[in-house]
Amino acid sequence: MLLRTLPLLWTLTGCATTRAPVAVLPLDVVGGTAGRVGAQIRRSVSRELARARPGTDVLADGRVDEAVRQSDGCARQRRGHTCALAAGRALGASEVVAGAVAGLGDTFVVQLQIVDVPRSTVTRSLEESFYGGAGDQAIRSISERLVDRPRPAPRTRRWYKSWWLWTAVGVAVAGVAVAVPLALRRDSVNYEPVPLP
Question: Residue 68 belongs to a domain with what CATH number?
Answer without folding.
Answer: 3.40.50.10070
